[in-house]
Amino acid sequence: MSDFEPGDQASIASVTDRVRPVAIGAAVTAIHFLGDRAAFVGAEESVALVDAEGGISRVTVHGGGILCTASDGVRIVMGGDDGKLAELNGKGEVAVLATDPKRRWIDNVALHPDGAVAWSAGKTAFVRSGKGEDKTFDMPSTVGGLAFAPKGLRVAVAHYNGVTLWFPNMAASPEFLEWAGSHLGVVFSPDNKFLVTTMHEPALHGWRLADNRHMRMSGYPGRVKSMSWSAGGKSLATSGADAVIVWPFASKDGPMGKEPTMLAPLQARVAVVACHPKQDILAAGYSDGTILMVRLEDGAEILVRRNGTAEVAALAWNAKGTLLAFAAEDGEAGLLPL
Amino acid sequence: MPSPTLQKIPVTVLTGYLGAGKTTLLNRILSENHGKKYAVIVNEFGEIGIDNDLIIGADEEVFEMNNGCVCCTVRGDLVRILDGLMKRKGKFDAIIVETTGLADPAPVAQTFFVDEDVQKNARLDAVVTVADAKWLSDRLKDAPEAKNQIAFADVIVLNKTDLVSKAELTEVEARIRGINPYAKLHRTERCKVKLSDVLERGAFDLDRILDIEPDFLEAGSDHEHHDHDHHHGHDGHDHGHGGLKHYHDEEMQSLALRTDKPLDPTKFMPWLQNLVASEGQKILRSKGILAFSDDDDRYVFQGVHMMLEGDHQRKWKEGEPRESRLVFIGRELPEQIIRDGFESCITS
Hints:
The complex is a heterodimer of chains A (338) and B (348). Chain A is built from no helices and 30 strands. Chain A is mainly beta and 338 residues long.
């Protein structure tokens, strides 16, 4: 394997010397910030809370694999293969929110800003409102992904052949958005106008919610596993190709009839993307371990981490956008202060 | 040095019609003292009497791929479960997928051909079918699922042999061989089979496609019970010859092709691809060892329905006959069309 050697090495800025390495020592599946502490969620059992100085404290959350996570910046809610839905707050306190009586895997979780939490086990989706009321809904097939709409208590449940929009507090029957195939991940646009799913095939599917018009976003060589809205929700950055694929969502038609922008092409597959919370910058992690910061406007790149290691598993910005945390699949991690 | 495929976690698919003894075999695998830990994907919780935190309930969801190919189906739940299990890599040595009695093994196998993530971490080891010696003959008449499971198998555990007479056993074996003469067949009572006969078979490993011969020709060392019944069919396709039965299943057959003349790769490859594209719904399994003209390497391939994978395997050895052999197992195979097509790929 050759090192990362861009054509003209002097032209790419590097901040690799400013990265503070963090040795998590175990596979990481997600990172969330709780205040200024970065929480590196392990593939199994525990979460490592890392402060800005690099001090690590470990908290055991699950008795097995950790399958899904969601965070609102105050707490992280996680589902495990031990059938438990657990919460971790910034003080490092763990609470079990729910236990599946049949010890089914908790496959998906989503959080609403008002405190509501949604999760799923097999074909059943659950919602606990901010007031603590539980509602359940059985889907026609296994739940692939969950997302709360930015406004109102509405949950998008992705499954085989489409997405069900469920209103847990209303008697009205759920709305069904149909599209053949297996839908695995789902997100609302921050302005609540569009819904986008990742599919089992290497493609995204989208709906404009005003009229349910379809948007097909395809051409990826691999399955899309990571999506991130740019600050303000004007565009959606995605993994799955040898470049970051960015779909335009600024106009009322979204990406319909438009080409995506391709940024930061490398000889490696983009594995994770994370947009900066305030500026039009994104971080992209690749299958060869490279991490780049990329400006959306002109594609200018800054090298954060060189290649030659395990695939990048997770990336996260703190809420202010002053810290970038990353981890590779082998547990090698780091913090970059900006 | 183990090849990279062998470092992937092996997955054994356990099929069999209702009541044949799948759970018995599973319990045997889990309880025997072999020092290995298995993750088990079951369709029904609670049937397994072993305490194991790596038993996962599956929903057996069969998804069509959005690629316009109707028989291109995968097990959606399996994609999800294998992905989740990979978070606990290192906690188990192998995975066993138990299917329901009515399941078609093809979507399970195809999941390993089409899903990039599944392929990265796991490899299909073999399809093991448990069959009930007493009732299989009846099921082959009235249950298409049972026939599918026999046709698809790499290993057949013919169970409950203590419940049938010797004549009945001969009969049911002949019926199995009429459909699938290539699977390894083991006669058992209460699924008492050596675990090495059902696990770590490498049946889908291209590197291990060494030979394609009907099982009964190389039987003997492989079986616990030695008796002359194994050698029926030696005399070719003479029905009932020498008092031994040979059945030809009207619906499901195997077709073997062979030539000692080199194949023209520019003709053979398009032919094979067209064949599985047009007849793939009928072809359940295919396998081949090929000798191409002007090529010193053996080429091997295998397929499930329309999906094929193939590669150069190794150099032909000195003195080894450069012979091409292909096997198709399928439903209502268009035998003459396949034979003629194959003939046209032979260099003259």
